[in-house]
Write a structure and sequence with these properties.
This protein is of the alpha/beta class and 164 residues long. It has two domains: 64 residues, 2-Layer Sandwich (Histidine-containing Protein, Chain: A), CATH 3.30.1340.30; 61 residues, Histidine-containing Protein, Chain: A (2-Layer Sandwich). It is built from five helices and seven strands, in the order H-H-E-E-H-E-E-H-E-E-H-E. The strands form two sheets. Strands 1, 2, 3 and 4 form a four-stranded mixed beta sheet that branches. The chain has a three-stranded mixed beta sheet with strand order 5-6-7, with helices on one face. Helix 2 runs antiparallel to helix 3. The longest helix has 18 residues. 21% of the residues are buried.
Length: 164
């Protein structure tokens, strides 16, 4: 009689265990939940214990993945090893180089030339291109070119001649 009771208890235990969801089915259902809430996450299942892994962009997605796994029938517990890795924030591109309006460029070059004491130079600006014309000393040639470059033009056309 005692052997029959033990046998009966074993059969009931086997029956209950086999009636519950198996790990393969649990993994399939958890994976379906993850596909909707956290597609970059994965799940492993062992004896009803779900282990989540992978990377997600935020805490809300991580929590949604865990909640989805917990809602699957047969899950005993969930170990959430999902790592939150925020999306890379790209720095904005540098602003384009500002090309000053023609009048502003001409005034800047004229002012620099006057401050340097350079005379005899005609400055013409068309579409951001500075043209220097006239006759200067060898020392003033370099200063005139620097004055033009500092005004941020598109181009400097040097038609200056050196006095002899």
């Amino acid at each position: 009689m005692k052997n029959r009771s033990i046998l009966f208890a074993c059969l009931i235990t086997i029956g209950l265990v086999s009636c519950g969801p198996n790990d393969t089915k649990i993994k399939q259902e958890v994976s379906e939940k993850l596909a909707a809430s956290a597609p970059t996450a994965t799940a492993d299942v062992a004896k009803g214990v779900v282990t989540l892994s992978g990377e997600v962009p935020d805490d809300a997605t991580r929590t949604a993945a865990e909640d989805g796994a917990k809602s699957v029938k047969g899950v005993k517990s969930v170990t959430n090893n999902i790592v939150v890795t925020p999306a890379e924030v790209l720095a904005p591109p540098p602003p384009p180089v500002e090309i000053s309006p023609d009048d502003k460029i001409r005034m800047s070059v004229d002012s620099s030339l006057n401050a340097s004491g350079i005379t005899g130079v005609t400055v013409t600006v068309i579409n951001g291109e500075v043209t220097l014309a006239g006759e200067v000393t060898k020392d003033d040639l370099k200063k005139a070119r620097q004055a033009a470059d500092q005004s941020k033009p598109k181009k400097v056309i040097n038609n200056l001649t050196v006095k002899k």
